[in-house]
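Two proteins, back to back. First:
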Amino acid sequence: MFFKGSRYANVQTLSYTDSKGRVLRYKNVRLIEEPSKYKTHRTIEGERLDLIAERYYRDPERFWRICDANLADWPADLVSEAGRKIEIPLPEE
């Protein structure tokens, strides 16, 4: 259902059978684990989160790891002002 590397790929799939007998599948709550090691990155004017992810992970779609580490509700908020320090979790081994 989710591509390899998706933040939801390893989240348990649950199911519910409704009163008409239909089986509804859904993902359990995704818990955010705190990484053990970080790098600090200082943002610059016009920087984008996907490009930061590309720089550190060689994968722009891994931007969500940076969002999780900084408890960001809106990814764009992390790069909205130049000079902000954000935490970059080190890549998984």
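And the second protein:
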Amino acid sequence: MENTTTAQTILNQLGGNKFIAMTGAKNFLTYKVDGNTTLQMRFMKGKDGINALNVTYKPGLDLYEMQFAKLRGVKSETVEKFKRVYAEELKSVFEGTTGLYLSL
């Protein structure tokens, strides 16, 4: 899979345009390291000040890693990290960690 295709798939699994509307997600960046594609983004502040997320797709395992962080200026603090997340769990992990809901 191409970087952009994989990143678009990650965004779609989170809810696509509805995800963007519900969270105010912005500043999307995608990159690839060691065959793993990461989609990075910022969004409105959730619980514990979380306002950033990196989702990395591990194609060999067909699983994801999610890293939640607080960003302020150039300072970044990882708040929570999840490994071995299935595609169908992405939304619930996001909601449970940030307190931001992805549906009405």
